[in-house]
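Summary: Need help interpreting a holo structure output

Steps to reproduce:
1. Submit the protein chain below together with the SMILES for flavin-adenine dinucleotide.
2. Request a joint structure prediction with the ligand placed.
3. Inspect the structure token block that comes back.

Expected: a single structure record containing both the chain and the bound molecule.
Actual: see attached output.

Input attached:
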Amino acid sequence: MDKPVEQPAPKPEIDIASMPDAREVTAVRHWNPRLFSFRVTRARSFRFRSGEFVMIGLPGDDGRLILRAYSIASPSWDEELEFYSIKVPNGPLTSRLQHIRPGDHVIVRPKPTGTLVLDALKPGRRIFLFATGTGIAPFASLIRDPEIYEKFDQVILTHTTRTVTGLDYGKDVVRRTLEDPLVGEEAREKLLHDTATTREEYPTMGRITDRIRSGAFFAQHGLAPFNAAEDRAMICGSMGLNMDMKAILEEAGLEEGSNSRPGDYVVEKAFVGEGIGA
Ligand SMILES: Cc1cc2nc3c(=O)[nH]c(=O)nc-3n(C[C@H](O)[C@H](O)[C@H](O)COP(=O)(O)OP(=O)(O)OC[C@H]3O[C@@H](n4cnc5c(N)ncnc54)[C@H](O)[C@@H]3O)c2cc1C
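--- attached output ---
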């Protein structure tokens, strides 16, 4: 007698919408083959400080949640939550997340946290926001928050990526900020956006750390060198960038702060591991 052909068990349809903390996707935009951003509805009870991150995720094939840390890229006053994401080839979460569409659901856990918050910094005159790659996400939140313009006379956002299109999301956020009825006027006066690439041809090229050490960064924008008495900073990039930037700021006399002990600068990893370029 023929052996019955074994059929794979049909995959149970996972109804994400009915899971706890499920939020509906309202918009998705792909910036290049490796980067995309998306927006989800915000629970009315969801509170966060601009610059914080949260755990978001999707169920895997076995139904268990795959959760990862994501900076919230929208400001705390926004009705929706925005995220900016890498697509890691075969990445457990992002190989699924990159296929979301409006109407789909994503899990957004309710406990935001993080050190890239204005409360962790002492008062100052200039604030420098140093980002590489997707590390611009927390700053996309902060530059759209009126509080940063209340607290600082000048907001200097630097974004360095490998590719030219890696800069596009940041440029779009800055454009939206300058046009925003809430912060646009102040941002037009106080916000400086520095962009550079490290691999592809672009008007400004080089690692931000090299551009700072050579003085080219300050010269390009007519900025005075660091002054620990009035400069504050936030760093969000790869482990290497974070370590190198910390060393530069410490040499200039700035001291690291935290939520419990505000200081001159704060730092957070944009991801764990070596990183993939974008
Ligand atoms: C505090 C914090 C905030 C984060 N915020 C964001 C965010 O706003 N946007 C975002 O895309 N990711 C962010 N990440 C990274 C994120 O948690 C995941 O690692 C990422 O979404 C990939 O998930 P994955 O399961 O597909 O692959 P994983 O198994 O998580 O990652 C596989 C490898 O891909 C590389 N990688 C992961 N994330 C990145 C990245 N963002 N840029 C370059 N290389 C990366 C690393 O080498 C990592 O070891 C953050 C991480 C931390 C710790």
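--- end attachment ---

Reviewer comment: Residues 53, 68-71, 84-86, 88, 91-94, 133-134, 137, 268-276 surround flavin-adenine dinucleotide (CB under 6 Å). Residues 120 and 260 are 7 Å apart (CA to CA).
Status: needs-info
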